[in-house]
Specification:
This protein is α+β, with helices and mostly antiparallel strands. The protein folds into three domains: 68 residues, Uridine Diphospho-n-acetylenolpyruvylglucosamine Reductase, domain 2, CATH 3.30.43.10; 127 residues, Uridine Diphospho-n-acetylenolpyruvylglucosamine Reductase, domain 3 (2-Layer Sandwich), CATH 3.30.465.10; 112 residues, UDP-N-acetylenolpyruvoylglucosamine reductase, C-terminal domain (Uridine Diphospho-n-acetylenolpyruvylglucosamine Reductase, domain 1, Alpha-Beta Complex). It has eight helices and 22 strands. The strands form seven sheets. Strands 6-7-14-10-11 form a five-stranded antiparallel sheet. Strand 10 and strand 11 form a beta hairpin. It binds uridine-diphosphate-2(N-acetylglucosaminyl) butyric acid.
Length: 360
């Protein structure tokens, strides 16, 4: 195990916020996690697990020990009559996994092309795009328990996936008598080391989203291959989402809120153009980007934190990384902007927007 001190975090978070980690360990396998647990000081210290840094807002120097997940590997581990089972290390880039599976002839992840971040982070917030969520292609995962030092495997039900949600986002309940963690929450406790995906042999394209329908109409291709959908999704995303390599950001900053049909009817009566989708359970999902845009935030800034011009759901770092690598937005500016947006949306629509990224 190699322990680093006073490590710059700017290259390790896609918002490119300048901060340092007091202590950082690059985790290349289970042995590194076991070594952390056996270390006299690190074992008991608070820890922060960092994947691709694409879903995090850093508001100051990080005191917990940063476990930077670098576990590599992508392989076919099993074949059933229905599926190819693919296993990938937590540190692999998500987009590279999507690309690799398609090149090997295993379709199923194409709608989730270009989502920033790592394989290990993908189950945490059950990533999703263009009609497919991680849980639709998930088989199981291996994780390491930082409180016991044991490895364990979880299936989809045990991960308790929801919309941008899983067991890994919830803190464990603490038993008041023993002080031990109980209940389902695994936040701050489990480190995901490997993820397995079940990719369908009888693949069907998922083309329900309006943006993909437009691509079909425009190109005249009515039966696209998985590779064609991958290319379309990359084009759609590049046209409206900022490339984190150029403009710092963490993807959608807020979740799309869900309201009751009555609440939605009330909002439509006041705001007839509100973008909304009826869900199978009877509730209605509203487009948070539309709500923020309607409040006039698109293109606005607070300090160096801004609202992206082409998609109001994405907050960006207006700093110029090339010219001024030590400048740019602070995590505080990003959070001040986020709170101002939440207040506007609440005052106008009566809806509390929930942030997607972790704030540390
Ligand atoms: N809209 C506006 N103004 C804006 C932004 C959006 O009017 O400034 C409207 C759009 O015109 C559209 C609607 O809002 O009618 C929804 O926008 P979009 O299709 O861009 O999708 P989204 O709901 O904003 C979600 C995911 C994205 C995912 C896309 C495609 C969440 C929080 N976000 O965005 O995921 O790529 O759908 O599936 O669910 C992410 O989570 O980081 C992410 C990028």
């Amino acid at each position: 195990m190699h322990i680093e001190h006073n490590v710059p975090l700017q290259p390790l978070n896609t918002f490119h916020i300048v901060a340092r980690a007091a202590t950082l360990v690059r985790v290349r396998g289970l042995d590194d996690l076991r070594a952390v647990m056996a270390h006299p000081e690190l074992s008991a210290a608070p820890k922060l697990v960092l994947g691709g840094g694409s879903n995090i807002v850093i508001t100051g120097d990080v005191k917990p020990v940063v476990l930077k997940m670098d576990i590599a590997g992508m392989r076919l581990v099993q074949e059933t009559t229905q599926h190819w089972i693919i296993e990938a290390g937590a540190g692999e880039s998500w987009h590279e996994l999507v690309r690799w599976t398609l090149a090997q002839g295993y379709p199923g992840l194409e709608n989730m092309a270009l989502i920033p971040g790592t394989v290990g982070a993908s189950p945490v917030q059950n990533i999703g795009a263009y009609g497919v969520e991680l849980q639709d292609r998930f088989e199981s995962l291996d994780a390491f328990d930082l409180s016991t030092g044991q490895s364990f495997t979880l299936n989809a039900a045990q991960c308790a996936f929801g919309y941008r949600d899983s067991v890994f986002k919830h803190a464990p309940a603490i038993d008041p008598d023993s002080g031990q963690a109980t209940g389902l929450g695994l936040a701050g406790r489990a480190v995901i080391t490997q993820v397995r995906f079940a990719l369908p042999k009888r693949w069907k394209p998922e083309l329900g989203y309006l943006d993909l329908q437009k691509k079909m109409a425009h190109t005249g291709i009515t039966q696209p291959s998985a590779q064609q959908i991958f290319d379309w999704v990359c084009e759609i995303r590049r046209a409206k989402l900022p490339d984190p390599a150029v403009i710092g950001n963490a993807g959608s900053f807020f979740k799309n809120p869900t309201v009751s049909p009555e609440q939605c009817a009330d909002i439509i009566a006041r705001e007839p153009k509100v973008v909304h989708y009826h869900l199978a359970d009877g509730s209605v999902k509203l487009a948070a980007g539309w709500l923020i845009d309607a409040c006039g935030w698109r293109g606005k800034s607070i300090g160096q934190a801004g609202v992206y011009e082409k998609q109001a759901l994405v907050l960006v770092n207006r700093g110029d990384m090339q010219r001024d690598p030590s400048g740019g937005a602070t995590g505080g500016e990003v959070m001040t902007l986020a709170k101002a947006i939440q207040t506007s949306v609440y005052e106008r629509f009566g809806i509390v927007l929930q942030p997607e990224p972790f704030v540390v």
